[in-house]
Structures are given as structure tokens and as C-alpha cells.
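Quick one - inputs below.
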Amino acid sequence: AQSVAQPEDQVNVAEGNPLTVKCTYSVSGNPYLFWYVQYPNRGLQFLLKYITGDNLVKGSYGFEAEFNKSQTSFHLKKPSALVSDSALYFCAVKAQAGTALIFGKGTTLSVSS
Amino acid sequence: DADVTQTPRNRITKTGKRIMLECSQTKGHDRMYWYRQDPGLGLRLIYYSFDVKDINKGEISDGYSVSRQAQAKFSLSLESAIPNQTALYFCATSDLPGTGVGNEQFFGPGTRLTVL
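Output:
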């Protein structure tokens, strides 16, 4: 069965510091991997995806994520955090032969000034 | 995403009442989904539809039903609402596989439902 784990409920980082939001997954076969962000009272917004190819994926707002097949991980990163990055972040996975996205439980990112 | 709209945005109802949540999209996507979001549980899939004649149960379909009235419209019904259906409900759409967009889903703004 497919599953996604986001081991941290909350990540706190100071503005200007690098940030990492962790995600590990379990899926049969090759995965499609996604990161979404949710701001208060808003729907989910797509940030980036890994489908195939280069393991380092760049997305919106300066975010990037690295696909690591051996560790079954897809951690979200940003070199320099902004206060405006504070939000709820979701990792999601879909088997290439599968149908639906499976979401993690979400990680709240809090960036302090 | 303005291309995916949901009505109503907020709804308070009573136990036992029937309620319908509606979703419309102008993205031209064939695939549509209904999720519920609960604090600490992330998003869980209720139902999904890959075209007008296709309806599939998701992880938590009990107590819910759906109707795909057209390619652009997908509604979710609670036949007899109960308090543990209080949640934030999201509609989403996606394109067909192999079109190059990698199957990411586009979400509506959500409907906050409270069942008293």
C-alpha cells in the first residue's frame, strides 16, 4: 500500500536560514512525488514535482526538493527562509501505475523574523 | 486556484440534514476528486471520477455520495450529516496521464462544513 510520512508536525526556522521539511514515502514501483503548500484559509497550491530525470527538482518561490530513491525520501528545501514561507506543507505520492494521490499529514513551517 | 470553484465556502448544518457541496472547474480536466482535511490527519480521499461515467470510492467514502453531472461539475453529498463529518472539504482536478503535466492536482478554495 502507498503511504507518505512527514515525521515533523512543525519546523521552526529563523528568517534567512536554510529550511528542510522532511518526507519519506512507500509505493510499489516508481513514484510520482509532489509538494503542496497551504496558506491560512486557502486551498492547496502546487509547489513542485518529481516525475523522472534529475533528482533535484526546482519549484515555485525558490523551493527545491531532492529525490533519493535509496532512502525513499523527497525532502523539501530552501536556502534562505522568508517569514512569508510560514504555512502548512504537504508531501504527496502516487504510483506511476496508480490512480490517486496519497498525502502526508502535513508539516507546519514557522519562520521567525 | 480560481479555475476550480466550490460552493458554498462555509456551511453550518444540523445532524441528520442532507447537504450538497458543489465543485466546478474551467481547466478542461477530465479527472476530479473530493478530499476532506482534518487537523493532524492531512487530506483523505473521499471519491474520485476520471470522466463523466466513472465514479470511484476513495479511502473514506462511507456516509458520502457523489455525482458527476458534466465534465466540469462534481458534487459531493452527505445524505444524513453527522458531527464527525465536520471538516474542510476540497475539490481538485487533474489532467490525463501522459499529457506532460505529471498528474499534479489543482485545488479549489475549500468548503468549511460544520455539523451540529
